[in-house]
Design brief:
Strands 1, 2, 3, 4, 5, 6 and 7 form a 7-stranded mixed sheet that branches. It contains 8 helices and 7 strands, in the order αααβαβαβββββααα. With about 230 residues, it is an alpha/beta fold. This is Lipoprotein.
């Protein structure tokens, strides 16, 4: 009986010891995971060092950019309803580029690209026909990092295409390079290349989710447009 009790006690010790070892292993594994996985602050810092820009800033800036896209496209569609054609789309087969940007941002547009005009003529046409004091919105980022910091309006024949450039990649955007993603809307859409019609993009669930996201510093971005 005593022997049997010793066996039972030994068995219990083995079980307890085994449980203790299992718990220790679990704790070790958990600690190992914590050591391998960076904290949110470390991950943000690491991504900042990789992309060269603040992720929180770009989160907010992307929301502003898609709002700007929505606003500009609505001006274009309203102009067509009034005049029967899109602004600057005069039927010419030659592509005409208008860069929607401040004078400061235009300083960064030099390169091997096609010739372009500033946005003054486009703004003038919109103001003339829509009868509003329209000031076209521009990318909130003054200096480009990883991607262009201006919007592109291109006309050819009777059609237009407008492009904005985002930091983050979304299901409705086209990745060009790391931290460089393009969203394009056109009156001559090409779904295969993610060139959207306005109605398809603006009813896209992911686009709606992004445009309605909360911002970290909405007041700051509001102040830029004043």
């Amino acid at each position: 009986m005593k022997y049997k009790m010793i066996i039972i006690l030994f068995s219990m010790l083995v079980i307890i010891s085994g449980c203790s070892n299992d718990t220790s292993d679990d704790q070790h594994n958990t600690e190992g995971k914590l050591e391998k996985e960076p904290t949110q602050q470390e991950a943000t810092k690491e991504k900042y060092e990789e992309s060269g820009t603040s992720e929180r800033y770009q989160h907010d800036a992307d929301i502003v950019r898609v709002h700007h896209l929505y606003e500009i496209v609505n001006y274009l569609e309203e102009y067509k309803m009034i005049t029967g054609q899109y602004p600057l789309a005069n039927g010419s087969e030659q592509q005409k580029y208008t860069f929607i940007a401040t004078d400061e941002q235009l300083n960064y547009t030099t390169g091997d690209g096609p010739p372009f005009e500033d946005m003054s003529e486009l703004e003038s046409l919109l103001n003339k026909e829509i009868a509003q004091n329209i000031q076209l919105p521009v990318d909130p980022q003054k200096v480009p990092v990883n991607k262009p910091n201006f919007y592109i309006y291109m006309t050819q024949s009777k059609n237009y295409t407008i492009a904005v450039h985002l930091h983050n990649e979304y299901s409705f955007s086209k990745n060009i390079a790391p931290y460089y993603n393009k969203v394009e809307v056109s009156s001559n859409p090409n779904p295969e290349h993610k060139i959207w019609s306005s109605d398809k993009l603006f009813s896209n669930e992911d686009f709606i989710e992004v445009i309605n996201k909360e911002m970290y510093k909405e007041e700051y971005f509001d102040s830029l447009s004043q």
